[in-house]
Specification:
The complex is a heterodimer of chains A (about 425) and B (about 170).
Chain A lengths: L5 H10 L8 E5 L2 E5 L3 H10 L11 E4 L9 H17 L2 E3 L6 H7 L8 E4 L13 E4 L2 H10 L1 E5 L3 E7 L8 H12 L8 E6 L6 H10 L7 E3 L4 H7 L23 E6 L6 E3 L7 E3 L10 E5 H4 L2 H13 L9 E5 L3 H9 L2 H7 L3 E2 L20 E4 L15 E4 L2 H10 L9
Parallel strand pairs in A: 2-3, 2-5, 3-4, 5-6, 8-9, 8-11, 9-10, 14-15, 14-17, 15-16, 17-18
Antiparallel strand pairs in A: 1-7, 12-13
Chain B lengths: L1 E8 L6 H4 L11 H4 L11 H4 L5 E4 L11 H8 L4 E4 L4 H9 L3 E4 L10 E7 L2 E6 L4 E5 L4 H8 L3 H6 L6
Parallel strand pairs in B: 1-2, 2-3, 3-4
Antiparallel strand pairs in B: 1-5, 5-6, 6-7
The chains are: A alpha/beta (about 425), B alpha/beta (about 170).
Bound molecules: iron/sulfur cluster (SF4).
Iron/sulfur cluster binds next to helix 9 of chain A.
Amino acid sequence: MTAQTISEKIISAHCGHAVRAGEVAVCDVDVVVGTDGSGPLAIDYFAQMGGARLHDPGRVFFSLDHYAPPTTAGTRAFHDRIREFAARHGATVFGVGEGISHQILVERGIVRPGQLVIGADSHTVMCGALNAFAIGVGSSDLAAAMLTGRIWLRVPETIRVRLAGARRAGVAAKDVALALVGELGGEGANYQAIEFTGDLAAFTLADRLVLSSLLVEAGAKAALFPHDAVTAAYRKGRASSGAATEAAVEADPRAQYARELALDLASLTPRVARPPAPDDVVPLADVAGVPVQMVFIGTCTGGRVQDFHEALHAFDRAGGLLAPGVQLVLTPASQEVRARLIADGTLSRLVAAGAVETTAGCGACCGTSGVIPGDGMTVLSTANRNFRARMGNATASIYLASPAVCGVAAATGRIPGGLAP
Amino acid sequence: MIIEGRARVLGDDINSDYIISSRRKRETIDESRLREFLLESVDPAFAASVRPGDILVAGRNFGCGSAMETAVTVILAAGMSAVLARTFARSFYRNAINNGLVVVECDTSGIAEGSGLAVRIDAGAARVQDMARGVEVIGAPLPAVMQRILARGGLVGFLRAGERLG
Ligand code: SF4
C-alpha cells in the first residue's frame, strides 16, 4: 500500500478503502456537532430531507454557545427549537454556559484521536489538535450527516508545517499560529490539510488547540497534530478515553505532501494581526503604542486556562491595575475552564481589578452575545478573526495577539512593543 | 444550462460575515428578511441595487471565514443567479452546491461591473462569456458528486430523490 498522510489514513479508515489526496470518499462520521448558530437551519434541512430519525443519536451534539445567554426573543427561540429537537431524537445538548462546542468535545473526551468529526462551525478544525480529522461544514452537510451518518469528502492534499527549535520566553502558541497564517495567507491552505511536525514536545495541548483553530484563517480544511506523549497525557482521565479506544494515527515516512513550510521558532518574536484581516500579520513592534479601549480574552482560540494565566501574569508584571478608559472583557471557553479559573483565583483577581466576566461560550467574538465595542474603538483580542464588524460594530478596529500581549495592554492602555522576558 | 445576467463586481477576500453579518442573524435566519442586509459591510447600498438574475463576480477567496449556510441562502434569496470567483473558500463552495447555487471558479479579472454575462454549464464544465467584449473564460470543472447534487437542485433534492452519497 502506498504511504499516507494522517488525513489520508483517517479518511481511509472511515470509508473502508485506501484513499489518496484528490479522490472523493464517502465516510462514516464519528461525531456530528452543531451550534445555536447553525443548528436551527440544520433542523430545517433535516426536515426538508425527509428526516424522521437520526442515524445515530449518540453521535449528535448541539452546543448553545453563540447566543449565551440569548438576549433576544429570536435567539431564545433558536435554543428552544434545538432543545425540543434533541429531546425528541435523543441527541445531546450542551446548554448556555457549558461552553464552546468544539472545546467541550475535546475536554470531555468526546472527540478521540483517529476520529472523523464534522461540525457546523468553521473552527471545529480545532479538534485536529487531538490527532483527529475534524472539518467545518454548513448546516446542510450537518443535516445530511445527522440523517445518513455519512459525509462525502475530497481527500485533501497536506501541507507539512515543521516547527523547529525552541521558542523564546514570551513567544506564545498564538504568535506561532499568527506567523503561520501570515506566511500562508488567507487562502494559502484552502482545500488542504495541515500536518504539524518537528519539535512539538514543548507545545502543550492548549498550545496545539490554538494552532489548529487559528489555521482555519489560512483556509485549512483540517489541521492535525501527531499523537504523542502530550496527547496521551491529556487524554488520560478524560471521560470515554481508555487504552482500548485510542487510535493514534501516524503519517507514513514516505507520505506525500503538497509542500513543506518550516518555521524557525528560535528567531520568532511576538506577532499581531492588524484589522481587518487575520492574515495581515506583523511583528508586535510595528504597532507598538497603538491605544486600545477594549481588551478581550476569550474564544476557542484564546479562552482556555493557560491563556488566562498568561494574560494575568503579564497584566501583573505591567502593574496589575486596569488602565483608565480600558474595558477588559473575560469569557472562559467553557464551564470547566471557568471552574478552574475560579478555583485558582485567576478570575477573582482580574475581576477585582475591574474586568467584566461574561457567560462561558463565544461571548463577544462575533457580535452575537457579550460586549459590543463602541464606535471607533480599538480592540485587542485573543480571538481568531478581526474582520470589519466581526464583534458587532463596523467602526471598531480589532487587533489579534497573544494573551500576554493583551494582558499588558489592559494595564497600559496601549499595544506594547515587546514583552519583558 | 445557460445563465445570463448582469455582473456585480466585488474584490478579494469577501468573507461570509461580509456577505451577511452574524449580528443580523440574532433576529432571524429567514433569508427572505436577511436579504436586505446582503453585503452591507462592503456597501450598504448593495442589497437595494440587486436585480433578479444578477451574477456576483468576485476575486480570490470568496466566502472565507465562517461556514455559515446563510451566506449562500441570502444570495439566492436576493435573486442572484450565480457566483463567479477567482477562488472560493471550501466551506462556501460546498454550501453553494448543497443549495443549488451555481458557482464557477474562473479568471474574473477582466469582468467589469455591469457587463452582460452568459454562463454555460455542460457536464460540470463551465464557460463564461462577456457578451459586450466577446471574451470567454473557462471555469474549473465540478467534481462528479457535486454535479449530481447540483443536478438535483441541492442536497435536499438529492437525498429526497433517494440518491445515495457515494
Ligand atoms: S469562539 Fe468565536 S471563533 Fe470560536 S466558535 Fe465561537 S464564534 Fe466561532
